[in-house]
Amino acid sequence: MNRALIILLVVLFVQPAAFAQELKNNSYSQLFNKSKLLIANQKQEEAIPILEEMYTRDKTNSNAAYLLALCYVKSFKNINKAISLLEDAKGDYSKFYDRSSVTERGVSEYAYYYLIIAYSLKGDCKNTIGTLNEFYKIYSYEDEWYLIDGQKWYRECGKHKWEDDDSIKIADVPIDSVTAGLVPELISNEEIIADSAQPESQNQIAENNINGLAPNSMSPGTASPYRDRLRRVGEVGGPEVMTRDVSHNARTSLYGLQVGAYIKPRFAKDFKDLKNVEVYIDNNGVFRYVIGRFVYRSQAEKLLNYVQEVGYQDAFIVDINTTKNFDEEVVRVNNQSIKREITGDVEYRVQIGAFKEEDIPEDIMRIYLQFDDINENIQEDLTILTLGEYGDYDIAKAFCSNIQDLGIPDAFVVAFNQGRKITIEEAREYLIRKREEDLDKVREKAAAEQQGKKKKRK
Fold it and tell me: Which CATH class is domain 346-427?
């Protein structure tokens, strides 16, 4: 047999087996986080084998079934399987669905939305309108667009061509919420005015809504009484994240560039060579980082070229106005502004203790009696005790070793800026950048002086 053919066969059979084994070696939590990041970065097909492994481990977990079916629908594959999964999962719908929790076993209201799309793609119009009726009954009405898009999928039911028994021909699918990051058709104000009369039958409810009579709806221009109210999100024990609802106040698409998506929040300043980074948290608890807000897609495409040139090759264009992924803006993380900046001097200290209680613990009290010049730093409900203030990390590290030898083995070096505790890595990066900026200024000054001397000689 040809050697090249043998190598090809080995690659084809060995690599998938190795990948499957790698998935099996991951914990459920690792698989959950990987799948969320892939979905956030529009890599549904890459997320599918991970979610299939999750579902195989626990077929009673409706959330795993929902996320897997969502990816099937978005990739236009395994539509019949997606319908089966969503039909079973929707019974576990919970209005208290926790999108970010690995222990969540219920499903979001959007399980109905994706089931509408799946039935429409299959051409099962009776179940499309039936599911649309169910969606009206349980929907929270936070974003009217999903109801309107569900109506559109009903109107397009049965119009899609099939490649095989379980896949849709992608070229035949219109540009919509699934293929283009939730870009809906334009809807006039008149099409979403609430109808106070209650239809007699469920089918009449849906038919009236197809004609633009959505029940209990709010005009997009009507501000919610809860707008701009800060609230906490995330799991217990994780970072404390404060968010607020945002309204982009535009009737058309607004294009931005997603430059990153992470399970754990990062600060906007962490994106080197980028400015004006906005941070949002989506329905799956993924933190999305976006720059730009353009009415014309061509403007976003020009910015995309620059962003890719400075190192963000995976950046892509998103519509921040017509998708729920960008309705919730992150404002603070652990009571620090998501857009915080380090300015001025950075100092290193040695942390020797910390406490939350009103009464100082006995071990902390002994430290008070052992050392002079203890600094008390209040950070929220935590009192941090530190010794010394140094501009150089190595000096602070040497001092820390002395403190450890004197009976506090768990002492360690911390960094502060403007009285606020920052990470050692943040301090190092800032000081390196500051030194480079200072050197640039010295070089510029020297060059200007040299230029001045040349002019005098003339």
Answer: alpha beta
